[in-house]
Design goal:
By secondary structure, the protein is an alpha+beta fold. Helix content is 18%, strand content 39%. Bound molecules: flavin mononucleotide.
């Protein structure tokens, strides 16, 4: 086991670049079944006096059903050497293949039996606090949003409390 627990509030400033410098794997599910997908959008911050991580998942994703059916999700930041895994998890659906087996990733479990990957440099284990659909009528800057929703399939936003963090 490479990863060691750290306090979410002690994460470095570098970690705040999680979603701009890196494309992590978002994983939801449990010990029986789970699915990872690559994500590029999200954020870290503070809500209701808790450290939180926000992610955005289109309802067409296979991962979406696991986000809905489970109370926890994880965000695993893989090293550069796992580029192929990130590519596969961002281009193939878990409906069609077992992405974890295909990538040869090692699954570990955190709070709520939430699955994450031991190959990661950083892992956040999150407990869902809030979820809300993004909607066309709520967009303020149409030009910013429009290119991403030409075919609908709007994201659902999930805010999770970071209940555990692990670093290599
Ligand atoms: C770099 C990158 C970033 C992505 N970011 C997101 C994201 O933030 N939200 C999302 O819903 N899909 C995102 N995707 C698309 C999913 O990763 C992709 O559709 C994946 O195949 C879904 O897998 P699933 O059907 O097994 O859930 C991204 C893909 C890539 C390559």
């Amino acid at each position: 086991m490479r990863l060691k627990p750290v306090n979410a509030r002690d994460l470095s400033l570098e970690t705040l670049r999680l979603f701009t410098g890196r494309t992590p794997l978002l994983t939801a599910g449990d010990r029986n079944i789970c699915n990872p997908m690559t994500i590029g959008w999200g954020g870290l911050g503070e809500l209701w006096q808790k450290p939180v991580c926000t992610v955005y998942v289109r309802q067409s994703r296979y991962t979406f059903q696991f986000m809905e059916s489970h109370d926890y999700f994880t965000v695993s930041v893989l090293p550069e050497s796992c580029r192929d895994a990130l590519h596969l998890c961002g281009s193939k659906s878990g409906r069609d293949l077992d992405k974890i087996a295909a990538c040869g990733l090692t699954v570990r479990y955190g709070a709520g039996d939430a699955p994450f990957f031991d190959e990661a440099e950083l892992v956040l284990v999150c407990r869902k606090l809030y979820a809300q659909d993004m909607k066309p009528e709520c967009v303020i800057d149409q030009a910013a949003a429009e290119p991403f929703y030409k075919e609908g399939d709007w994201h659902r936003m999930y805010v999770g409390e970071v209940v555990e963090a692990y670093q290599a």
